[in-house]
Each structure stands twice: as structure tokens, then as C-alpha cells.
């Protein structure tokens, strides 16, 4: 954490927000467009992004005319939204997606880029599902994009999985797992040519696809789609991530409302 960082911004303070929108990777136009295409297609009225960040997805979605709201913990991240085309139209509430309520009823709530894992307890992740359901109209959809836990790459006796090693850039990245708590940390080591370094460690909780289905059920939602990616490829045993969609049970006039 650097001196300009506000601890209230959590793991995404000013020093992280400042280069979050750098070109490439998750910010590559084709990556953003493929997610925005699917979300626009699934929406049918106002949408809400949990952990909207700098508006990487919310702003281009709003630029297409979709009414977009967002909840975000970090003021430093949220401050970047309005600078993007479409960003002015995004209604942002600073708060915690496990509990913060915004006014309105939504056709779609979405939580992308592995961010369900930023909530590091199972109870907290269930609260995210309950809060999503509370914002949805009957028949509304909740979309989560998250990686499949990478445990198959970890031999017995080892707790670390490297995911990047770039000698030229002076960068090494690795995850460190605790299979008892399902917590893991993502670790980023950067060394500048003068030998000075930075070590960033971000805590997560990994969560299995079937566990997410159970959380959805607890919150009164049922599975609708599970794709391997935003191109809606088939989800298979080899998929490294998924885009999952659950539907809030529609209300029938003679039926009791769903549990949860
Ligand atoms: C990896 S970024 C994703 C941002 C954006 N959704 C995107 O796709 O670029 C994770 C974001 O989640 C936010 N965040 C983490 N935990 C949160 C919580 N409990 N409630 C709201 N936002 C949260 C962080 O501040 C950060 O902006």
C-alpha cells in the first residue's frame, strides 16, 4: 500500500486503480466486447454490476443504451468510471456487494472477472447470491464469470501454482492454496531493472461450479446456462473457467415465493 492509498478501498486502492485500465489483457477490446455482447443479449431492462470497478464492462454496456447501475467498494476504482465513453450514465453506489442495496428491480445482475473470489468466506459468497436475487425481478438472471479452481495442477505436498514467469519484464506470479479453507492468495512479484521490487498479495476464496449452483439454490435461483467463456463455448472437464447464469424463480400467482 502506498501513502496515497485509502485503506477503505480494500485491495483495489489508488496505487492499483492507477494502472488497472492499462491496455491489453482483460482490457483488450475483443475481450471486453465479447462479455458486453453476451450481457447485452441477456439483459431485458436495467442491469446491475456487482464490483463494477473502473467500469471496464459497465461503461461500454451503458454506451449501448442499456441502463446500468453498479456497486463498488473502492472509491479509487469507481472514480475512473465517468472518464470512459458511456461511463457518465452508470449509476454507482459505493458499498459492499454482500449487503448493499440499490433502488430498483433489475433484469440482470452480473459479477465478472473472478470477483466472487474476493469475498473470502463461504457465508459471504452466499450473501452475494442472496443480494443478487434481492435485486432481481422474478425471472431475472444472475451471471458470474470465474475460473475453475486450479488444484489439478498442484501435486500432493505442494501448495503453490505458478501462473506467470516473465524474466524480461521482471515479473513472477503464483497462487498459494489452503485446501482446508478454500482460501488462496494470488501473488505478484515485480522487480525493476535497478533491483527494487514490489510484492503484492491478494486474498481470495476459490469456489467450485457445483458449490455456486448450491449458493444459487439457497438464494432462490436455478441454473440456466454454463459456458466455458463469453463465446458460449461448451463447458467441459478441461475448461479453466466458466460463465454461469442462474434464473430467479418466476412468481406464479398461486405459488409460495421461493425459499431464501
Ligand atoms: C478484478 S476487479 C473487477 C472490476 C470490474 N468488475 C472488471 O471486470 O473490471 C475487482 C473489483 O471488486 C471490488 N470488490 C471487491 N470486493 C468487493 C465487495 N465485497 N463489494 C464491492 N466491490 C468489491 C474491488 O474493489 C475491485 O474494484
UniProtKB/TrEMBL annotation:
The keyword Transferase applies. GO terms for molecular function: methyltransferase activity. Pfam families: Methyltransf_25. It comes from the Bacteria. Residues 47-140 form the Methyltransferase domain. Keywords: Methyltransferase, Transferase. Residues 1-29 are annotated as: Disordered. This is Methyltransferase. GO terms for biological process: methylation.
Amino acid at each position: 500500500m502506498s501513502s496515497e492509498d485509502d485503506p477503505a478501498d480494500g485491495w483495489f486502492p489508488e496505487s492499483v486503480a492507477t494502472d488497472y485500465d492499462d491496455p491489453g489483457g482483460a482490457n483488450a477490446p475483443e475481450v471486453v466486447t465479447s462479455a458486453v455482447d453476451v450481457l447485452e443479449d441477456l439483459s431485458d431492462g436495467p442491469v446491475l454490476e456487482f464490483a463494477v470497478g473502473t467500469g471496464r464492462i459497465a461503461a461500454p454496456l451503458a454506451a449501448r443504451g442499456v441502463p446500468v447501475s453498479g456497486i463498488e467498494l473502492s472509491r479509487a476504482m469507481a472514480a475512473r468510471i465517468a472518464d470512459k465513453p458511456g461511463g457518465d450514465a452508470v449509476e454507482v453506489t459505493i458499498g459492499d456487494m454482500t449487503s448493499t442495496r440499490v433502488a430498483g428491480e433489475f433484469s440482470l445482475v452480473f459479477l465478472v472477472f473472478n470477483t466472487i473470489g474476493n469475498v473470502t468466506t463461504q457465508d459471504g459468497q452466499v450473501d452475494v447470491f442472496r443480494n443478487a436475487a434481492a435485486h432481481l425481478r422474478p425471472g431475472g438472471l444472475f451471471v458470474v464469470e470465474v475460473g475453475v479452481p486450479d488444484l489439478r495442477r498442484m501435486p500432493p505436498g505442494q501448495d503453490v501454482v505458478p501462473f506467470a514467469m516473465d524474466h524480461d519484464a521482471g515479473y513472477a506470479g503464483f497462487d498459494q492454496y489452503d485446501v482446508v479453507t478454500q482460501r488462496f492468495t494470488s501473488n505478484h512479484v515485480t522487480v525493476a531493472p535497478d533491483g527494487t521490487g514490489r510484492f503484492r498479495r491478494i486474498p481470495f476464496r476459490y469456489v467450485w461450479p457445483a458449490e455456486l449452483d448450491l449458493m444459487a439454490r439457497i438464494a432462490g435461483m436455478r441454473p440456466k446456462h454454463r459456458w466455458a467463456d463469453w463465446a458460449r463455448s461448451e463447458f467441459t472437464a478441461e475448461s479453466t473457467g466458466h460463465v454461469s447464469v442462474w434464473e430467479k424463480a418466476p412468481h406464479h400467482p398461486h405459488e409460495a415465493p421461493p425459499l431464501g
